[in-house]
Amino acid sequence: MKTAVGVLVSLILIGVVSVIVVLHRNPGAITLPVLGPECTVGADGEVALDSTQMANAATIAAVGVRRDMPERAVVVALATALQESKLENLDGGDRDSVGLFQQRPSKGWGTVKQIKDPRYSAGKFYSALKKVKGWEKMRVTDAAQRVQRSAYPNAYQKWADESQVLASALLGKATGAVACRVSGDPTLRGTAAAAALLAGLKLDWGKKLGSASEQAAGLTLPVSNTSSGWRYAHWLVSHASGTGLERVRFGNLEWHAPDGKWQQVTTPGGQDNGRVVAEVFA
Predict the structure, then answer these.
(1) Are 61 and 117 contained in the same domain?
(2) Considering its fold, how many domains does the chain have in total?
(3) N or C: which terminus of the chain carries fewer CB neighbours within 10 A?
(4) pLDDT, tens digit (0-9, with 9 covering 90-100), for 250-272
(5) pLDDT tens profile 137-173
(6) Is 78 in the same domain as 151?
């Protein structure tokens, strides 16, 4: 009897181990449920991020534009943040490192409170990168390393392709490239949501934002060209989670929060080529 039980237990354990090995070697065999909002970015490649990562990536890109940094700088900054924090605004890290770029107060990057502000930390990174002679012609990992001085100087390169996809989309070089699905009841609605969105836009874009106007139903952002229009449209979608944003419209496309996709505008006269329109939940 004991022998039979032992054999049965062994077979069960073997079966469990076999399942684990199959799932590990073939991760596409099953699809696990996705918890919370999910964002995908498609621009000559595809990147999947959660809502927090997406918002931080959009802020890093916006700060780069605000500082008149070229696309290559944004790629380097995003690759650095992906390696250092996976685009999460971390409370700690190696020694006294904190934030998106794991900058250290003891090394003169600023106070913990300052570094924990994504706009501040991104700005400090761009300032340091700008001082590196010839960074524009360096590999992504070499440029990042000259700023970060990491113990793993080649680690940033593995994020170069993903960072290029993100930069292309967030700098407005791709159409309808950032898609985030937001579910659940928004914590902000109406005028409160519109005011919060406008405040975030001003913090990230500064004077580059231009004459955005706020209404009870949302925001209107006049744009001078297609590229700037998609910059703002993608920024808005990237920050959709928790902001009460329901819909974004630009050109002949619109994004809707519950669906999370960009689709053709079907409302007669609904196309907007000279402005980005953001609508919040009432």
Answers:
(1) yes
(2) 2
(3) N
(4) 999 999 998 999 999 877 666 66
(5) 999 999 999 999 999 999 999 999 999 999 999 999 9
(6) yes
Examine residue 241 and state whether it is found in any structural domain, yes or no.
yes
Residues 6+ apart with CB under 8 A from 140: 75, 76, 79, 156, 157, 159, 160, 163
> Residues 204, 159: one domain?
no
Final residue in a domain of this structure, among 136, 170, 204: 170
Q: How many CA atoms lie within 13 Å of 105's alpha carbon, on the beta-carbon side?
A: 12
The domain in which residue 112 lies consists of 49-170
162 lies in some domain: yes
**pTM for the structure as a whole:** 0.85
Q: Is residue 193 part of a domain?
A: yes
